[in-house]
Amino acid sequence: MQIYLDYSATTPTRPEAIARMQQILASDWGNPSSTHEWGQRAATVLEQARMQVAALLNALPESILFTSGGTEADNLAIMGVAQQYTQPQHLIISAVEHSAIAEPVNWLEQLGWSVTRLPVDRWGRINPLELQAALRPDTVLVSIIYGQSEVGTMQPIHTLGEIARSHGALFHTDAVQVAGRLPIDVQHLPVDLLSLSSHKLYGPQGAGALYIRPGVELRPLLMGGGQEFKRRSGTQALPAIAGFGTAAELAAQEMALEVPRLIQLRDRLFELLVDVPGLLPTGDRLHRLPHHVSFCAQQADGEMLSGKTIARQMNLAGIAISAGSACHSGKSTPSPVLLAMGYDERTAQGAIRFTLGRHTTAADIDWVAMVLQQVLVRLTPRLAFSEV
Q: Of 251, 273, 291, at which residue does a domain stop?
């Protein structure tokens, strides 16, 4: 039995998106910037995809800028704002941002920018009062992740965005884990910039988008031919973008039924594992991504049990999950997200994540829970597990 529970890392490209991509590769492969018939057919494909992605957010099509993925969208949001200033300013992020935000912000800090990293509580949530207190006259941008990929916690984005807006600072959110999984309406959500990624919602890898509220100025990271409204030069990856558009349209159509199904499966897995000795649930259970389950594993004597070890053992059983720690230079390091949430280094190195998707069934959930307990019994024989 093969079970894939790593949908937050990437989703399988849905057949409808693949068919659309094949059509573009075979028939509508022109350069959208060309004025002849082939180019104009390609331009029509591009703008159709733009409308499909815009509809997912209830946005104007011209507010959607296509990128190579969520990382580029995040970088463009941060650096596109920062590069407008000749002198370093102040920006605010959370302590649990994705590296696609944290790394460019670290670089700006080295250039003299002032950075405030808002703390989170034990469940990974920001207190909006912390943002209110951190705002300064020179705060030009606030960037807070919408749904955290490692622990599943969702932030109070509407409240945070309103606080930033009342101060006059631009507000960006990385919604890569949310878009296509939960409704987003940028006509009511107080965001100026919002990142999303094709391969998180059953589109192909290599395509993403940045929503830019009309009137917001950004400096381009890539300069050249002036594509994407002169904000992102380079010939667009038309097949990937077309597949992205198809996946976005279908995600919007299916969301009303898919979200409650995923929540039911998510809660089922939590309930099956929550009382297992040595497993500590992580993240906010109430304010949580609908498809996300996460734990930290510990040995009975408090020694570290690596999440990577558990993930490898699950893989040998035909089950794909994710370890919550990163590996740098061959050394396993604890997750900065879990450290920011107050976990000690040993516990943080035991992080594991299960993320569910379109193909996940209740039978899959029951099997995975049973196999995980068997794996933990082998790895931690001193713990007294319930019968599996």
A: 251
